[in-house]
Write a structure and sequence with these properties.
Number of strands of chain A: 12
Oligomer: homodimer
Number of helices of chain A: 20
CATH architecture of one domain in chain A: Up-down Bundle
CATH class of one domain in chain A: Mainly Alpha
Shape of chain A: globular
Helix content of chain A: 55-70%
């Protein structure tokens, strides 16, 4: 089943929700004309369909091979990666000064969605590389930038994030890897890192590891962690590759999904210490990592959207083709594809509407990032930065949780064939499974949301968001259109649930922190579904004005999708509110021995 | 991670919800004394832990090997199966007259749950064999029974169900396999069958295939399908094995889960026709299959409970052991296991309470089956038969859908380790994935529920069920205990949602059959959560009277689990009702071209 980039849907979300025209008018974005953006999306869509999608299933089946520290990628990956770099796609989202195209985040978001849909395993290599580029660009010395960035942006060198250790997963305070000064300005880095995505492979000349480690005099906990560049091959003064550094991939994991991306166990400094270079100041490593973690979280949220889109296309194609059973209530007497069975339709509409809501959210937040970076008005920058920070954990948490149900339904639509690996539907479900775990589990996102993003500032930005949603509901009501008024009703119920739950959190966060934390994940889902419903309702408001266009069918479908979301997804808001506000005691009731 | 049978929980559900004492007093069940039942459960628990659980992960990893029609099972399976048969576990649930122990269904349900938890792949072989035994015992001639049943009950021969063909999945009307009379009372059967669980293997001397096929003069559709016994090896007059029959396993599937159970493609009659024997009368095959399908559906629902239990035990063990991060609101300053993180607790409570609710439902319905079979009072038999029929699709549909979230949370509790195959948590999720598909997808169950079980009889039995639930709420209220009154409130909200949705279905089933079908799956889930909540509330009512016992901790935990279910699961009822009653139009709105 090939993948076709949903360019029209993407452009719609970019134009209407991220408001691309405004973004393109911001300083530095002048080149991002509507024509150029459409051309980029068309070209990227072709590359995704023709180069990346065809090696997705084979990559899943073959996986990577580890032999004595050398990792060989699945067939076709080396060639695809070479082509990806050659055509400039690898560095495209990076800043112009480092060889990228400096396009708005909104535009690169759509392009990245395509890579993730076409081949999630493949896309992770670029994602990690660009994350490392971002950390280096923001925090490293000019010398380090000049040595590493151009090749990383070009893709001839790839990047990794080495955070996790066996005893330090969600809790990075427990990091034990060490870095000792070597007297020449470099450091001898040692320690074991696990879960290193694309930590070792054969697609690039060099791999630049960003490693969290402790200096000898570092304070304990998160305030004693520094960030180091530790290249696989040392770089000579003339920029050529020198000796192999003292680091090795000791094994790769057998995972449930993303088989074609090697997840490495990395041993640093087992001989004399791996030579590393301090990024920025000592003991600020975690802070630097978070610069890129926040962006990486948005990108993982986008993975949720992308894998959902792929699963939807896959299931839809099967549902259009497979003829099975009489359609209830159908008097034609004809055999029809299963797409006509009401429950298959329900599943497809569920997949479609949630995927569109996730895309709406991810692109909307990308727009906030563009405005927060480049808008000339400080007030607008501040408001967009606040919205971006509030919604980053929601994009990560809700879009990835959403993808679980969507990819699950993708299997279900296929019936028995769905369970057969060759069909390909379960790969999407297996690939999606990691997204609620890495870059911070849903619980980590939810605690960020209720703590730093809400309680810490007394719920101010959540209040502004609720007002914006209420304003949309009001606007929809004024149209007098019953379909839009129904959406407004649904939004008002959603805001009420969100308001109640937010107030409960504010009342309890300090006094009963465990009770608040017990409701954190339901609260994140509540926020996600209401904000998703809001953006879908805005889409509907726009679509209603265009239903008579030559392209009316496209807009009518948007109205139906928004109605489905309001009727089938939004009612969850009340259930989440009830669980948050009434359910904390039961979460905490049992003694350890009673489980 | 080993499996320990939750004997105490099982006995509680058997005694209090299925009301085992009453069942043991029914004619024919006299031997099922409380002591004997406890001994059986203890012994079965040992066998499950010591023999079946240890080969679960290795079986998943190795799978089966197909070579020229011969299927070799994973290491240890042959030996485990021999021991399973030798100790009498294989035939235990069968009737005494065929060599079984003739125990109440309630008792065998608990034992079967253990096999399914310990090793779902392994357990399928017995499940299919006993299903075939049931069909033969009810519908075949005495001669066929005498030839086949004793060896099948003993397990030296296993059984299969050959229904599905490439073009005939959910729609058995499309079956094309043929059976031509051979003139000697036997038939020449030919055709291709797919998805045949344990269709070929090396654990037994013979495999007895039950095959749906059409006689030459058969009417089209479901009324022209007959049922045949087609043995792998023909049986000589003296009972010894004769020639190999003309049937062959042409391949086995690569599946997402249940790797250790071969799913075979079977080719019948590629040479001269496979010799088969008609079961019962011509053209009644589907009806006969349904005798065992209904029981098989309960058993697949039980798989949902069993795999949930296993996933819960697995996640709990990890959560007790793994130390990570500071616990929010904890002033002890100690490092504690992740079990103490509120969100990990929330996930474990969710897993625990839903698993217990699923078990409550499955065992309760097993009790209905026992009473429907053996109660001396025809009125009681009838009432229990009606309840059994109403809830069979709910056990199958809801318990298996429930298992998806539970096994998913089992992975999530493990964090990054959950995604690593060696951890074992994803095997449960992958194994669980088939349960909402085989033996009739959730949509098939849901259509059975809203059609045959509700609309066809004007909602009568659903009304009686709602009255029973209301009576429980009333009883809980009279205690004056605030915790029980809160459960009563939750039940009343649940009944109201179920009542509204049932009435809507009754109003629309005839006039708008597609709209009704669009709400079928949400309606099944609504019924499941409300009935689950009812049984959990009954548990709480009993537990409240025993919280002061020496065993008080066990009962206090039951109260907490019931409260959790009421607060976190029951609010879904309102969301399902809304989706059913308001959401049909949006399901059906799009033209095929608009997807």
């Amino acid at each position: 089943m090939n993948y076709v980039a949903p360019v029209k849907d993407m452009l719609f979300a970019m134009n209407e929700l991220a408001e691309l025209a405004e973004i393109s008018a911001l300083p530095g974005n002048e080149e991002a004309s509507a024509d150029l953006v459409e051309t980029i999306l068309d070209e990227a869509g072709k590359f995704a369909s023709e180069v990346l999608a065809p090696i997705n299933a084979s990559g899943d089946k073959e996986g990577n091979t580890w032999t004595d520290g050398v990792v060989s990628t699945a067939r076709g990956f080396k060639e695809a990666y070479a082509s990806f770099c050659e055509t400039g796609w690898n560095g495209m989202p990076a800043a112009v000064e480092f060889g990228g195209q400096g396009l708005p985040v909104t535009v690169s978001t759509a392009v990245l969605e395509m890579w993730k849909s076409a081949n999630m395993s493949f896309s992770l290599c670029q994602m990690l590389t660009l994350g490392a580029v971002e950390a280096i660009a923001h925090h490293a010395s000019n010398e380090l930038k000049q040595i590493y960035l151009p090749n990383m942006v070009a893709g001839s060198w790839t990047g990794t994030m080495n955070l996790t250790e066996p005893q330090a997963g969600s809790d990075l305070a427990a990091v034990r890897s060490k870095a000792e000064p070597r007297g020449d300005g470099s450091y001898a880095v040692s320690g074991t890192k696990i879960f290193i995505t694309w930590g070792e492979h054969d697609m690039a000349e060099n791999i630049i590891h960003l490693v969290l480690a402790r200096l000898p005099d570092a304070p304990p906990g998160v305030k004693g962690i520094s960030l180091f560049i530790v290249p696989k091959f040392l770089v000579n003064a003339d920029g050529s590759l020198g000796e192999r550094n003292d680091l090795v991939c000791t094994s790769i994991e057998h995972k449930m999904g993303i088989h074609a991306s090697a997840t490495a166990v990395m041993a640093f400094g087992e001989k004399n210490g791996a030579i590393g270079y301090l990024v920025g100041e000592p003991n600020r490593g975690l802070e630097y990592m978070f610069t890129m973690m926040n962006h990486a979280r948005l990108n993982v949220g986008l993975e949720g959207v992308a894998i959902s889109e792929r699963a939807y296309q896959h299931a839809l194609a099967y549902a259009r083709e497979r003829v099975q059973g009489r359609i209830v209530g159908d008097k034609s007497g004809e055999n029809k594809p299963i797409l006509h069975h009401p429950d298959v339709r329900r599943m497809l509409m569920d997949m479609k509407s949630r995927t569109e809501a996730g895309r709406a959210l991810a692109y909307y937040v990308a727009g906030c990032m563009d405005r927060a970076r480049s808008h000339p008005d400080a007030g607008v920058r501040g408001a967009n930065q606040a919205r971006l920070e509030l919604l980053t954990p929601v994009v990560k948490g809700w879009c990835t949780e959403m993808a679980q149900g969507v990819t699950w339904n993708g299997v279900q639509v296929h019936g028995g064939m769905g369970f057969i690996e060759e069909t390909g539907a379960c790969q999407h479900m297996r690939d999606a499974r990691i997204t609620t775990i890495y870059e911070g589990t849903t619980a980590i996102q939810a605690n960020d949301l209720i703590g730093r993003k809400i309680a810490k500032e007394g719920g101010k930005n959540m209040g502004i968001l609720r007002e914006d949603i209420a304003a949309t509901a009001m606007t929809l009501r004024t149209t007098g259109d019953p379909a839009l008024i129904a959406l407004a009703d649904s939004l008002d119920r959603g805001i009420a649930a969100l308001g109640d739950a937010t107030q409960w959190l504010l009342d309890n966060h300090e006094a009963k922190p465990q009770a608040a934390a017990a409701g954190a994940v339901p609260f994140l889902k509540l926020t996600g579904v209401v904000v998703g419903g809001w953006l879908m309702a805005r889409v509907a408001g726009i679509a209603a004005t265009r239903a008579g266009d030559s392209d009316g069918d496209f807009y009518k479908a948007k109205l139906a999708t928004a109605a489905f979301f309001a009727q089938h997804a939004m009612p969850e808001a009340g259930a989440y509110r009830d669980a948050i506000m009434n359910g904390a005691d039961a979460v905490l009731a049992l003694a350890e021995s009673q489980f």
